[in-house]
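Researcher: Quick test of sequence recovery. Tokens follow.
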């Protein structure tokens, strides 16, 4: 009887008061997410090197970069169960080692096939970090802190992502992209050891019965995947994140170099404002949506902002640099509105479907990069006029702008989906 009567208290203990130890442990997961995000956007400052090294065009380069996203997307839903079964400490530590191994392979690859494999391994390893940070937040902090910690994790990741812009571009110019990847691999190894040594899964370790978490996850997925509301929110989240991943993650820097005649470090510096905008927009969106209680409005407005920002970038070339920075930052800041999608899906879905629905939404945000990065590359190759310099294909600024119409199209789809959202909980609509 005593054991059963203590069950509710266990639930309460799962939401302890924040402690310095909890903050430290969670910050290591957030740092791991920053490391993963650095990998996500790093190819944007290596475009010419990668195209020349492997003798590839825009389509294959887009595929090479996007191979990070494919395993990432596929693993988001099962990772929830894996984290429950094996714990964040073990999975995150092993994931960092795998990311480091993929980084070494990518940096040493002489053939494109090995570069592909390295990028896949990086994607597999990177897939754990964000969900690991959320899992630790749930164990070490009260539920009321969840939205703040998710937004702050995004802020931290975007801030780290800025290091993969101008600073990485300068380093690539100094020591080469292969040496940069080797150094980044050692960073991953060091971070994995720190995680293994310091991270603990929860203040009080509670064992999950074997197979229980898997059963819960797959029951939730099978129920959530057929709900139109989930997919509407997922489309909005994907279309908010897609422009940032396509522009900030790969094609924005070479476009600025070609269209504005900028050196790579300067172009990368300007494009880093899309990440800085996102870093500010994510926590602001989460905070404002809580204050207003209007999640739909806080998704329609950012989606409209993305449409406007991308439109200006395409149809108004040769902007003054100060205005160009504002437009890039607007796209990023608006994209940060994606944080409100996680709150909305939790509010309108039944509690037992919240985790699965969030997994679907998170998968779609990453899938947007997997789709748009190669799509832009394919369109660039279709418009390529045959110009080559030092074995690297040269694309005109007009080619980039036409290819970016695909990004604008996705943003318009996202705006339509945002306008169709329903903020009324599913249970109330049925009643």
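Model:
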């Amino acid at each position: 009887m005593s054991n059963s009567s203590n069950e509710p208290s266990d639930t309460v203990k799962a939401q302890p008061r924040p402690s310095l130890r909890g903050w430290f442990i969670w910050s290591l997961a957030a740092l791991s997410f920053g490391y993963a995000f650095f990998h996500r956007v790093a190819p944007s400052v290596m475009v010419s090197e990668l195209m020349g090294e492997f003798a590839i065009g825009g389509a294959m380069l887009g595929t090479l970069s996007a191979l990070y996203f494919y395993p990432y997307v596929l693993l988001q839903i099962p990772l929830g169960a894996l984290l429950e079964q094996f714990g964040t400490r073990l999975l995150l530590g092993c994931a960092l080692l795998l990311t480091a191994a993929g980084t070494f392979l990518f940096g040493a690859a002489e053939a494109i096939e090995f570069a592909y494999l390295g990028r896949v391994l990086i994607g597999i390893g990177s897939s754990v970090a964000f969900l690991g940070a959320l899992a630790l937040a749930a164990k070490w902090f009260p539920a009321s802190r969840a939205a703040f910690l998710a937004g702050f994790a995004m802020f931290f990741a975007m801030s780290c992502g800025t290091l993969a812009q101008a600073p990485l571009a300068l380093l690539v110019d100094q020591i080469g992209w292969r040496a940069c990847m080797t150094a980044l691999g050692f960073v991953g190894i060091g971070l994995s050891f720190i995680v293994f040594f310091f991270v603990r899964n929860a203040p009080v370790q509670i064992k999950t019965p074997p197979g229980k978490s898997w059963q819960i996850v797959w029951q939730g997925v099978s129920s959530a995947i057929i709900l139109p509301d989930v997919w509407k929110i997922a489309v909005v989240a994907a279309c908010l994140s897609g422009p940032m991943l396509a522009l900030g993650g790969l094609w924005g820097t070479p476009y600025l170099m070609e269209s504005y005649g900028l050196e790579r470090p300067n172009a990368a510096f300007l494009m880093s404002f899309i990440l800085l905008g996102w870093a500010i927009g994510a926590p602001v969106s989460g905070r404002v949506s809580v204050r207003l209680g209007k999640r739909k409005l806080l998704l329609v407005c950012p989606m409209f902002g993305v449409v406007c920002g991308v439109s200006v970038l395409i149809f108004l070339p040769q902007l003054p640099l100060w205005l160009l920075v504002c437009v890039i930052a607007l796209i990023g800041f608006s994209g940060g509105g994606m944080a409100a999608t996680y709150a909305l899906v939790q509010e309108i879905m039944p509690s037992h479907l919240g985790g699965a629905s969030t997994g679907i939404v998170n998968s779609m945000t990453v899938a947007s990069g997997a789709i748009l990065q190669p799509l832009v590359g394919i369109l660039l190759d279709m418009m390529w006029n045959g110009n080559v310099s030092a074995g690297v294909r040269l694309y005109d600024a007009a080619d980039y702008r036409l290819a970016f119409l695909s990004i604008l199209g996705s943003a318009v789809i996202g705006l339509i989906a945002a306008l169709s959202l329903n903020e009324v909980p599913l249970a109330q609509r049925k009643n």
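Residues 228-260 form the longest helix (33 residues).
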